[in-house]
Amino acid sequence: MKFLVEIEGRSFEVEVQNTFVRASVDGEHYSIDMRSVDGHCLYSLIVDNCPYDAFVEEKDGGYSVTIQGEQFEVEIKDPKSARLAMMTRKPEVPGAELPIKSPLPGLVVAVEAEPGRAVKKGQVLVVLEAMKMENDLSAPRDGIVREVKAAVGEKVEKGQVLLTLE
Amino acid sequence: MKFLVEIEGRSFEVEVQNTFVRASVDGEHYSIDMRSVDGHCLYSLIVDNCPYDAFVEEKDGGYSVTIQGEQFEVEIKDPKSARLAMMTRKPEVPGAELPIKSPLPGLVVAVEAEPGRAVKKGQVLVVLEAMKMENDLSAPRDGIVREVKAAVGEKVEKGQVLLTLE
Amino acid sequence: MFRKILIANRGEVAIRILRACREMGIPSVAVYSEADRNALHVRLADQAFLLGPASPLESYLSIPRLMVVARLSGADAIHPGYGFLSENPNLARTCQEEGITFIGPTAEVLEKAGNKVEARRLMKEAGLLIIPGTLDGLAGEDEAFQVAGELGYPVLLKAAAGGGGKGMRIVHDASEMRPAIRTARNEAEMAFGDSTLYVEKLISRARHIEMQILADAQGNMVYLGERECSIQRRHQKLVEEAPSPVMGPEDRRTLGETVLRAARAIGYVGAGTFEFLRDQEGHFYFLEVNPRLQVEHPVTEMVTGIDIVKEQIRLAAGEPLRFKQEDIQVKGWAIECRLYAEDPENIFMPSPGTIWAMVEPSGPGVRVESSAFVGLSIPTYYDPLLSKVVVWAETREEAINRMRRALQEYYIMGVNTTAPFHRFVMEDAAFLSGDFDTGFIYREWGEKTHRRERIKVLAALAAALVASQKGLPSTGARLRLQAAQESGWKSHGRRAMLRAY
Amino acid sequence: MFRKILIANRGEVAIRILRACREMGIPSVAVYSEADRNALHVRLADQAFLLGPASPLESYLSIPRLMVVARLSGADAIHPGYGFLSENPNLARTCQEEGITFIGPTAEVLEKAGNKVEARRLMKEAGLLIIPGTLDGLAGEDEAFQVAGELGYPVLLKAAAGGGGKGMRIVHDASEMRPAIRTARNEAEMAFGDSTLYVEKLISRARHIEMQILADAQGNMVYLGERECSIQRRHQKLVEEAPSPVMGPEDRRTLGETVLRAARAIGYVGAGTFEFLRDQEGHFYFLEVNPRLQVEHPVTEMVTGIDIVKEQIRLAAGEPLRFKQEDIQVKGWAIECRLYAEDPENIFMPSPGTIWAMVEPSGPGVRVESSAFVGLSIPTYYDPLLSKVVVWAETREEAINRMRRALQEYYIMGVNTTAPFHRFVMEDAAFLSGDFDTGFIYREWGEKTHRRERIKVLAALAAALVASQKGLPSTGARLRLQAAQESGWKSHGRRAMLRAY
After folding, report:
1. Are residues A21 and A59 in the same domain?
2. D139: contact with B, CB 8 A cutoff
3. pTM for the whole thing?
4. Are B75 and B145 in a shared domain?
5. ipTM of this complex
6. Residue where a domain terminates, one of A69, A88, A107
């Protein structure tokens, strides 16, 4: 079975031969023994005699894989549908609208941005209170504030868009 | 809600008042706060301000409860069906047939019993090899061997009846 | 000795204290807010009482509620842990009025130590060097600009009532002053109910070094050696060690004796810590007195063999110190890593979530002080400290190796933790050399090159193998429970191996 | 130092050794049988190789297979742990032929120590007291009856190649002799491939005390103090401590020096233990030499601060001892409890099963050496040792309190363990007094009065509450997953508490 595996923008072609688990990633061969440890998400892999523990969770149609404390969001496609996706994918427009999302639930205690104002990379846009700390959310790049969607005193959820840059 | 709870031959009448969890066991009152800790079998109880962790598993129509390392098999009946059971229960005949079961899976390496032979409490009846040890299974009381159901060299399962005493 | 001790705290420190009580044969009483009903400190205590809602002001910071629990439970002593009310003179005073022993210094000492402005003045009088800056609380923003101008930027804004890095901000130039004052004041008000600030010169390339002491009511005092706590983010420590790589026995004696003189000057009784900044010339500038247990106390315990919490309890009960200065030896090396529920990849932002799987390390020389368990939902109301890994070994090098080993064995699934940062520190050249300062995280972690690429291939393999087992995944589905032993994969490695014989 | 170490063992000892390797910066190679594919020692190692089927003869006891793995992995040293091949002179000899270092004494020493009959003779010559009995292996049953008659019953049958209590049986009177010989011979044949037995007088009310030594190839030797191991079932230890409650510094020196003389007489190099029975008059009768790591080595490590596994590796690499006798101090008290997957309520019968939930203790002074994890199915082919809890404290009393605390925190669900027995020991008057002997379990545990009644009410409450949540249970159903925070129970206690303010 062949899989096209995407992790953080990098693609791997993985071929799994089921009789012997011998997989190749981008042409490189590996001998693998993989077992479920706890019947849930914990697996033990032995790859060319080197053991690794891996947590594999299904998530949003893909997988979230954690190995040695590093977590990866993994998408798996069979090569045909992958080629299809490649062709229909919208090209990323540099300088497009960038939403600034709340990285955690909290209370907005300050908004240092107004629509139309130019901001520098690193400049504080919103201050969020959570877990007894004030957390500064800064601009990830230079830009102009398009829309401010959060107000001081508002409780926001993780992932909620606080403002957008253009 | 009233429950008749049976543990190791002892019966408790437990009344649970759902609005306040206030339970009485055999007339003695307790204030209880009980929560699921891990969403599985682990619960935290606070009984009159004393905390306990309890594992509660459903098992064979009853519950297996473990608290402070002590495990209990618990049967729960509503009082009506309990009274019914009480009336229809066969009286225990002392000296009835007693099955000697294998407490663990293993290999029978010796059988020191013959049908019809009298045995003393503590006398070795069967030797079972498991986990690199020879384990002596002894008679739990004086009696006469009725039937021998295991043979030397036989692999037996946990709970399998090896012989019966009368 | 006490009949029963109420632990007015939560999390790993409450567990640390209740374990000490249990080992001394003293029953312990836990208190909890509604958000902490399932917390480990509640479940491990001998008795547990609800204090109130999640908000600290209505639970862990409520002196009247604590007093109700003390009365109901019959506790005759209160251990405040660190944070919350641990440095609050009102609690100490209320305890005294109610005939309950407060396990900590007197209200008078807490008042002197607690007001950082006041403490700076007192310590200056007692002969310690203090960092140039305002000796009084700031009157207003204008004074801040003026003092900063005189000292020269960068300067540090600090809360007079401060602690734990709260209400503290670095101000690199005048343009940053106004917002820094605002957030520092807000944090200080929120954390301590006192928004007074003061200004200090920022010492560049400084190391944070502190000295632990124990003092009895009979006038005996000892120092237990220093801790090196320079690896900090937001002025909160992440990695501590004892001894410090820059302190020899001679430095230790000099600093220890200086500290004991200062402690005597303020009539200190109990366990306490004097914090210093050491500049590159080796001067020790007094920072503050922490009149309580410190998060990082275990590293001192590991190198001296002295149980600071038990000694604290004995001292509070009026017992004299059981050892003299010459009995105390610093032996070997200890390191502590604090695991916070924070995302180190995302400027150490708190990372809430629920732990669904976890293994903590153990074995020779490893001690874990943890409040984590499967099923824990990290409450967003409190400090996100989950656990501390502490190791001891004969040498610093061996201790670092051991910490590396322990961190490899540690996993917590469901929340981000600072573990990846700690794994990085234990491989970092500056840390290994011992030559680092409080700017460590900014310089080293900021420059981190990821080891993710190497592991990415493994992640691709693991995901593909799971997918090959079950067809392509459907959105949102969970893995079915499957027995561990009934893996469908056959092992090439296994067959190849068997053929080799 | 070695390039790579192959660990020819499984379970907690393999993990103990691989942690030491990791901390010394030496890559480790694990081996495993098919039954151990998911074992922790496999998953924690740097490399892992399958040896063969579950049966020990085809895996952990197969010297040819180990040699294949050593060659494939490039290991230049083998650590045998305890049990399996650890005392096997053939492995030591094969290693030598293959140019691999065997981490242990020479084949010659293993031969001398391994044959208990031979060892008794040698040690008698070296000046140690030996227990009256046969100096040669038993020729047949007749000789057994004759010798037992001369010594007087009870006597002890022992395997000449023995160790770990295997092939050992007490014979109380002549009627027990024949079946005892049969089972002892079978066990000895099965465990060691040698069914030779000998007979000794049974010393009544004896204590099992042993002395740990380290010896380098340059002729330097030290003793690290004794261990008290009298709490045994089936001649296998369950609880150990260091020091022994009956040994003062003077006794320690006398026994230590005697042992070093005997060790010198047989040219001992490496780590080793001399076991003794101490009778009520204080005589030490030599039992056997264990030319390997002992399960209970951690208690010695905790009181001396010396890492015996790391020293073993250094000594095998040819390094001289890093300390002299006068550098070694016994400080404080350490206790170890062995958690076996056995049912202490059922004559310590092995108890197989799968672990489905588990929490191990930690915190100050607690060390756990564990091979347990959620998902582990205890294999029935090997010793059922799951883990060891080791504590250190200043005094014996405090160590006992600490062990109690650690055992309270420990839970393993899915298999029976010896934990309830250990909880009992830590409360037992004979154990607390320090006045006990190898008959402890028979006398004390046999008489145990259960604390179950007290807990039974709680179990009734817990079951009734779960039932009240969901109606009466249906056969075999599993509890539904429910979010921890969304309990349907309301707390009377909570409301009552809030009203109190």
Report:
1. yes
2. no
3. 0.85
4. no
5. 0.80
6. A88
